[in-house]
Specification:
Length: 350
């Protein structure tokens, strides 16, 4: 494609108010849906496997945050895939149409996910609240996909998947890693080790999410017509996974607050545990957000080299002239004295 054609396409994209969606949205949509289905299936199996009503309530409260995070990513990923299919060829919908389509796709994913929870018990309000929260999360994710730069949202989704994978692997290896952080027989050492483990997990998740978001955004920029994005959008891609965690925690505390309150009424111990988990999730999301943003900024900063120096002017057909040497004050003073010494004898002869 010629440079003129590229400029025309870039101008058309700017006129429409949004760039074309990434062409590889189907793979991301598949990964997001698989993640959401796995979290909902695990939540349903855990809830239905409890014989007592109190255990069902606490299991629902434990499973709610993970299901919300997966629903956010799945809603955004499916919406990106739908937009990618609709923007093939010369068809490029406007900003309002894009937003409506993306929100509708996220809502459809959320309603399907909500059915998996509501059908556990259609008579109680508990699972209706959980299903509505999941539907709201997927709808919000779909609305985010209507953002002007879909490749940024795609990078955020891949970063969120990476954060989940890193957290899952570290949790599997938790028993092996806790002694490294000083876990012993005493309760104080176990608490301290758990705190350090949570901090390291958050930092590593932020690093991985930021790097993956940067790499996905950089690779997408090579295949997308138009100029490369500026560094604030790279920072947004790196901070996006943590931002999704913070949004998910906000939904858990607002839309799913009745579930957490009901779980806290089971016992004083359960109330304390829910409060600790809520604070830990928020801290984890904030750490992932800031670490991911700084990681992406540093990564994109390493690709920025110094401005090229302008070549010195030279005579046509000749070698390039050397740059002028700065004047030396001592040489100027010696030249002035020599000129004065030559002037004085000439005046005496006159």
């Amino acid at each position: 494609m010629s440079e003129a054609d590229s400029e025309v396409n870039a101008a058309q994209s700017a006129q429409n108010g949004a760039e074309r969606a990434p062409s590889r949205g189907l793979l991301l949509a598949a990964v997001g849906v698989v993640w959401m289905v796995a979290m909902l299936w695990s939540a349903r199996a855990t809830i239905t496997g409890r014989a007592e009503a109190e255990m069902e309530v606490t299991s629902t409260a434990y499973a709610l945050p993970g299901a919300i995070s997966a629903s956010l990513v799945a809603g955004a990923a499916v919406a990106l895939a739908v937009l990618a299919l609709l923007t093939r060829g010369a068809r490029t919908p406007g900003v309002t149409v894009r937003f409506i389509i993306a929100t509708g796709a996220g809502l459809a994913v959320g309603l399907l996910g909500a059915l998996a929870i509501i059908t556990i018990n259609t008579e109680g309000w508990l699972y209706a609240v959980v299903g509505g929260t999941i539907a709201a999360a997927a709808t919000i994710g779909g609305a985010l996909a209507g953002f002007r730069y879909p490749r940024v949202i795609a990078a955020v989704c891949w970063g969120a998947v990476t954060v989940f994978v890193v957290g899952f692997v570290l949790n599997v290896l938790q028993d092996m890693l806790l002694p490294v952080f000083g876990s012993g027989d005493s309760a104080a050492s176990q608490t301290s080790a758990a705190s350090w483990f949570s901090l390291v997990q958050s930092v590593l998740s932020g690093l991985a999410g930021g790097l993956v978001g940067y790499r996905v955004l950089r690779r997408a920029g090579r295949h997308t017509q138009g100029p490369d994005l500026r560094w604030p959008l790279y920072a947004l891609a790196g901070a996006g996974p943590g931002l999704l965690l913070v949004v998910g925690e906000g939904l858990t505390r607002t839309a799913g607050s009745r579930v957490l309150e009901l779980a806290g009424k089971v016992s004083e111990l359960e109330l304390t545990v829910q409060q600790m988990l809520s604070g830990s999730r928020l801290n984890n999301g904030l750490i992932v957000l800031f670490v991911g943003a700084f990681t992406a900024i540093i990564a994109v900063g390493r690709t920025l080299g110094p401005a090229p120096a302008e070549p010195a002017e030279s005579a046509p057909g000749g070698p390039p002239s050397a740059p002028p040497r700065p004047a030396d004050p001592d040489e100027i003073e010696r030249a002035a004295r020599a000129e004065e010494a030559q002037t004085v004898p000439a005046r005496q002869d006159d």
